[in-house]
Design brief:
There is one protein chain. The protein is mostly helical. The chain folds into two domains: about 95-210, no CATH class; about 230-385, Lysozyme, CATH 1.10.530.10. Helices cover about 60% and strands about 5% of the residues. A three-stranded antiparallel beta sheet has the order 5-1-6. A three-stranded antiparallel beta sheet has the order 3-2-4. The longest helix is centred in the N-terminal third of the chain and has 41 residues, at about 90-130. The radius of gyration is 45 Å and the shape is rod-shaped. Pfam families: Glucosaminidase (PF01832). This is Glucosaminidase domain-containing protein. It comes from Anaerostipes hominis.
Length: about 400
């Protein structure tokens, strides 16, 4: 009986031991070398598993290389126009010129104000030296022209002359110096030879003009400069770099899409540029090509204007509830996945570079670019615009 119990214990131990032994699956995962201690795990077996893993890696690498080669080949086959098209808004140019002129006038007016304010302060200081009231100042600056022989001037008269000559230099007025040298301010003096009709002068009336400082200009240079910076006279479409903004306005986009099935999307194309920095003319060019100017079934029923997620005629596509959200989603995808260096579909910033992953064909870039050119041409035909 005791011997039977011992045999049962031995069997149990063997079973537990076999469960704890490492399996070949664990070995294939590439864990530590201790897993090769089993007799079944021979060098040949190890080699076989390692080669299987290497082959799997090699196959994955080969697929990536093949895909890269295919994309490189497609990129070489893609032929599309690459010339930048520019239109000039002459009204914006004129407004910017007017703003700069207005800023110059404000600065000139402010210089004059500062100068007149300084002159006013200088004359006021001079008045304080010769009198305490307006009447005293007027009396002190009453003068008569020297006539006949040189008059015998008093000390007070000489002091006034020195003050006037100093004032003439400060306010840069030569007439004040002339008065100081040819008039006397001592009216009690009598010429040795009396001359009739002596010319009298009220110098205070002349100097009072400097006391009228012009009003400071309250217009805001900062506000005007901000407006000028927000104005862009150029409307651009550069197929080589889609991150260069078009600066097309909603009103302009509305005008050039008027009469088409895309006219209701004019503001959305501009919003795509403002939100994600992708050229609005390019986004509109995709919509024109992919939806036939907004007339396709996908455009009408699925609100899909850009062929987003449409990999074949049968594909449902990645659709949104509105055209606006569909366009914004496309712009977001283009910015984050196609136009950002290091992103998964990045091949550059050109229309041709987008073509490599956005469309399997090699004519897509050319069609979209030509649609963009047509839109730029339409802007150039608007009144007040000039084609460069």
């Amino acid at each position: 009986m005791k011997k039977g119990k011992n045999i049962s214990k031995m069997i149990a131990a063997i079973l537990i031991g076999s469960l704890l032994m490492p399996s070949t699956i664990t070995y294939a995962s590439g864990d530590s070398d201790d897993l090769f201690s089993s007799e079944e795990n021979t060098a040949e077996a190890r080699c076989k598993v390692i080669h299987i893993n290497k082959d799997a890696i090699a196959n994955g690498t080969n697929k990536k290389n093949e895909q890269k080669a295919e994309e490189t080949g497609l990129a070489k086959r893609i032929k599309a126009p690459s010339k930048e098209k520019v239109v000039i808004n002459e009204n914006v140019m004129k407004r910017k010129a007017d703003i700069q002129k207005e800023i110059a006038e404000i600065r000139k007016a402010r210089r004059r104000y500062k100068e007149s304010k300084k002159l006013k302060e200088t004359v006021e200081a001079f008045y304080q030296k010769i009198g305490t009231t307006e009447e005293e100042v007027a009396a002190a600056l009453s003068a008569k022209k020297k006539t006949g022989k040189e008059l015998d001037a008093t000390v007070e008269d000489k002091n006034k002359k020195e003050l006037l000559l100093a004032l003439s230099k400060e306010i840069e007025d030569s007439y004040v110096a002339e008065v100081a040298n040819t008039y006397t301010f001592d009216l009690e003096l009598h010429a040795k030879k009396i001359v009739e009709n002596v010319e009298l002068l009220d110098l205070k009336s002349y100097l009072d003009k400097y006391r009228k400082a012009s009003k400071n200009d309250t217009r805001s240079i900062v506000k005007l400069q901000k407006e000028a910076n927000s104005l862009h006279e150029l409307r651009k479409f550069d197929p080589k770099n889609l991150l260069i903004k078009s600066h097309v306005t909603k009103d302009e986009m509305q005008k050039i899409l008027s009469g088409t099935e895309l006219s209701d999307c004019a503001a959305y194309f501009v919003e795509c540029e403002e939100t994600y920095g992708v050229n609005a003319i390019f986004i509109a060019g995709i919509a024109i090509h992919e939806s036939g100017w907004g007339t396709s079934r996908r455009a009408r029923e699925d609100h899909n204007l850009t062929g987003y997620g449409v990999t074949s005629d049968e594909a449902k596509g990645i659709n949104e509830n509105t055209r606006r959200s569909g366009l914004l989603r496309t712009a977001k995808c283009l910015k984050e996945s196609y136009l950002t260096k290091g992103s998964k579909f990045y091949h550059g910033t050109s229309v041709s570079a987008i073509n490599v992953k956005y469309c399997v064909g090699d004519t897509w870039a050319s069609s979209v670019t030509k649609a963009g050119y047509e839109l730029i041409e339409r802007i150039g035909d608007l009144r007040g615009y000039r084609k460069e």
